[in-house]
Design brief:
Layout: H1 11-45, H2 75-81, E1 86-91, H3 97-103, E2 115-120, H4 123-140, E3 145-147, E4 152-154, E5 160-165, E6 182-186, H5 195-201, E7 214-219, H6 226-234, E8 243-244, E9 269-275, H7 281-284, H8 288-294, H9 298-304, H10 322-325, E10 326-327, E11 338-343, E12 350-358, E13 363-372, H11 377-387, E14 396-399, H12 414-420, E15 426-427, H13 434-446, E16 457-460, H14 464-469, H15 490-500
Parallel strand pairs: 1-7, 1-9, 2-5, 2-6, 6-7, 10-16, 11-14, 13-16, 14-15
Antiparallel strand pairs: 3-4, 4-5, 8-9, 11-12, 12-13
Bound molecules: adenosine-5'-diphosphate and magnesium ion.
Length: about 525
């Protein structure tokens, strides 16, 4: 076979190829120039903040620069050490919450099975977190890589942290079929419903016994999700104490279903860790930030500076202060005057409150609550009497006066049915204007006495429903002198009846066992007093 003749490259051909190269290079240059022009235009639009000449880059630890991170004492340390499945670190702005959320997952990054998801509501806010993480992660784990396209960190061990944003509930489908061992949400109250948080819980899974699963959230109070976040993490317990997770609508403990090997046991634990600005020396010392927070309007100031959850825009009792109005429970001395008040509802709720009066200051103290639904008058009578077996003598009980008109199936009024069982009541004041007068009286009781520094009304910390409802009870839009009666107000009504019974520490009408003649016998068999 004849060998194929070598292809001759003519000088003409060479020239055209060079020309083509030149043409494409020119095109690239034009592209690049256009891009530069665009970027320069953008740069012009960026407004640079005035540079503070005294600004010092915050050093992680001034005394020991080789230590990369040291948690602030108190809540930040508690948050990082918390063993509960779901923990909320919430309260004042600047407390060091977001910072803690970024650092928290690092402890597992030596494990190649670790897969974390860290979320914020919007992309802009997320950038802040990414920026902070870029400061810390590569120092903690040399070789840790940020992949912008995937918005993910990978660590030399193979561990991953995906930092992304979740703007709308429906976007949770993005996580369908994925499993995470750690889920962290920064600014949880930015979500107006618990939908995303609940959905994410279903994405929590581990196949590695060395890797427990966690959900962590941080947030300031306020924001569209204030109420549900408060119901889920704050209302069920006192701060910093773990509790069995509850259903936020019914308040019932979430349990394993019947027939499960763990039937009846609670599903998992939650904890709320409160944050204060003063906990974070890195910001608190500077003072400027505090001054800015101090300048905010009352509601926002209490939320962002003091980290108060007990305040909502439009709340009827905005003066409620957990540190003043809630006190640790104690054994009420038997000599103190006691009484109770009740607002009854079958299909909605029944609220009963027990009161005592501290004789040294005449402070009214709510020492017990009962908040139940779907109980008949007879059942309620027994629950009330059961609750007070160790109370000694109760002076009286006030009950919504309409119950003397409402009849049960069997004839006697609901009030009479209770009295027959041995649970005595007298009717509350339901005259015209009594609602507004009652509300004014609640305000008067909530006031702090300058001399004693105590409020006229204190509530035992065990009364979690009253403590949850009172501070966020909204004002009525129609009548700003009253609360919104469509809101959850049964315990408030009971409180109002109790307060309007004009309690004092001792009354000459009180039963004293010393006098034989004073033995109680009802003056009126129907009213029972
Ligand atoms: N343990 C810590 N070590 C070093 N700096 C910290 C620490 N905790 C907080 N900071 C600093 O305080 C600043 C404010 O904290 P941040 O987490 O943003 O507050 P929050 O989210 O509660 O509003 C952070 O940017 C960080 O510089
Ligand atoms: Mg933050």
């Amino acid at each position: 076979m004849k060998p194929r003749p070598k292809r001759k490259v003519t000088s003409q051909r060479k020239l055209t190829s060079e020309e083509r190269k030149l043409k494409s290079a020119k095109l690239s240059l034009i592209h690049a120039q256009k891009k530069i022009a665009k970027l320069e235009k953008k740069e012009e639009q960026i407004e640079y903040e005035e540079v503070n000449p005294n600004y010092e880059e915050p050093r992680l630890n001034k005394e020991a620069p080789h230590i990369l991170f040291e948690p602030n004492k108190g809540p930040q340390t508690d948050f990082l050490a918390a063993p509960e499945r779901e923990v909320l670190y919430g309260g004042a702005a600047g407390g060091g919450k977001s910072f803690a959320l970024i650092v928290d997952p690092l402890r597992y990054c030596t494990n190649n099975n670790f897969n974390a998801l860290i979320l914020r509501r919007t992309n802009d806010e997320l950038r802040e977190l990414i920026h902070k993480s870029q400061d810390i992660y590569p120092k903690a784990f040399p070789g840790a890589k940020w992949m912008e396209k995937k918005s993910q960190w990978t660590f030399p061990s193979g561990a991953r942290i995906w930092m992304t944003y979740l703007e709308q509930d429906k976007d949770v489908l993005r996580y369908q079929g994925q499993a995470f061992t750690y889920i962290g949400v920064d600014e949880l109250t930015q979500y107006s419903t618990p939908y995303a948080w609940d959905y994410l819980r279903s994405r929590l899974r581990t196949a590695d016994p060395k890797l427990p699963v966690y959900m962590r959230a941080t947030t300031n109070p306020g924001g569209p999700g204030h109420i549900w976040v408060k119901k889920m993490f704050i209302d069920p317990s006192v701060p910093n104490r773990a509790f069995a997770a509850t259903d936020i609508e019914t308040g019932k403990i979430l349990q394993y279903p019947d027939r499960h090997t763990k039937a009846g046991q609670s599903l998992f634990k939650r904890r709320f860790i409160p944050a204060k600005l003063m906990d974070n020396p890195y910001l608190a010392e500077a003072g400027d930030y505090e001054a800015m927070l101090l300048s905010l309007p009352e509601v926002q100031r209490q939320q962002l500076l003091e980290g108060s959850w007990d305040i909502a825009e439009g709340a009827a009792f905005g003066e409620f202060r957990r540190d003043k109005h809630v006190i640790p429970s104690f054994n009420v001395p038997s000599s103190w005057r006691k009484f109770r008040a009740c607002d009854y509802g079958y299909s909605s709720y029944t609220g009963v409150l027990w009161f005592t009066v501290d004789p040294s200051t005449d402070t009214l103290i709510v020492y017990r609550e009962l908040y139940v639904t779907k109980v008949t008058a007879k059942e309620l009578a027994h629950m009330v009497m059961q609750a007070e077996v160790d109370d000694g003598n109760l002076s009286y009980g006030v009950l919504d006066s309409s119950l003397w008109h409402k009849r049960g199936d069997t004839g006697p009024s609901l009030a009479e049915q209770m009295i027959v069982e041995g649970c005595r009541w007298r009717p509350s004041d339901r005259s015209r204007g009594s609602r507004v007068a009652g509300k004014n009286e609640v305000h008067r009781r909530l006031k702090i006495n300058d001399e004693t520094d105590r409020a006229g009304l204190e509530i035992f910390d065990s009364c979690t429903n009253l403590i949850a409802q009172l501070p966020v009870l909204p004002l009525s839009k129609q009548n700003p002198e009253d609360v919104d009666t469509k809101a959850e107000d049964h315990l408030y009504d009971a409180l109002r009846y109790g307060i309007m019974s004009r309690p004092v520490s001792r009354s000459i009408f009180d039963y004293t066992p010393a006098t034989e003649a004073a033995k109680w016998s009802p003056a009126d068999a129907t009213f029972g007093y």
